[in-house]
Amino acid sequence: RFSVLDRSGTPSLSVAQASVKAGDPVSVSWTGAPGLKYDWIGVYAAGDPNLYNYLAFAYTGAVLDGSMELTPDLYYQVLEPGDYELRLMTDDHYVTLATARFTVTE
Length: 106
What we know:
43% strand, 106 residues, three-stranded antiparallel β-sheet, mainly beta, globular, 0% helix
């Protein structure tokens, strides 16, 4: 199976809620992902320039357009209240295709 994407198309990433309580899952959806076996979504502190500092990650399952819940068991630690961002990354590499911000509250 294969897909054809518009050359000018860009992936997008969004969160269902801009604000979540500490310990709650984060619902995320994406469109226009490459659909490669190891595309992934990482959770980062907002604005952190170090791509290796992800706080959690999950593979997209090679889905071009999809959604998932990032549950607390995926995180290396409970997210403290503050600003974070999700980054759609390509095929086990550190290339950011799209971002979406969210806030964790108490």
